[in-house]
Amino acid sequence: MNRFGLYSPALREFFTYAGRVIVHDDRAELEFLCPGTPVREVPPSIPASQTLPVRLHPDFASVTWPLTRNQFRHAG
Q1: DSSP per residue, 6-53
Q2: Beta partners for 8?
Q3: What is the DSSP letter of 5?
Q4: CA-to-CA distance for 15 and 7, rounded, in angstroms?
Q5: Residues with Cβ within 8 Å of residue 63, at least 6 apart in sequence
Q6: Are 9 and 33 in contact (CB under 8 A)?
């Protein structure tokens, strides 16, 4: 299974929470949740024990999983 993470080109590293790389298995969903933030495939050299699924991140506690896009309001 592929894992995708939020990536900072300026820092040249993945975003982390509590020292663990924030990951999700669906690139399009991660891009939807964090628009404007680059998403890259997380290399297999980063073990699962050093990752945090985005659904477990406190900022996403109110999100229903599996993701239902119509639960979000977009400015426009």
Answers
A1: EEETTTTEE-EETTEEEEES-HHHHHHHSTTS-EEEPPTTS-GGGEEE
A2: 13
A3: E
A4: 6
A5: 33, 55, 71
A6: no
Q: What is the pLDDT of residues 29-64, one digit of tens each?
A: 999 999 999 999 999 999 999 999 999 999 988 888
Q: Write the secondary structure of 41-69 as one string of H (helix), E (strand) and C (coil).
A: ECCCCCCHHHEEEHHHCHHHCCCCCCCCH
Classified as helix, coil or strand, 4 is: strand
Beta-strand relationship, 16-17 and 20-24: antiparallel
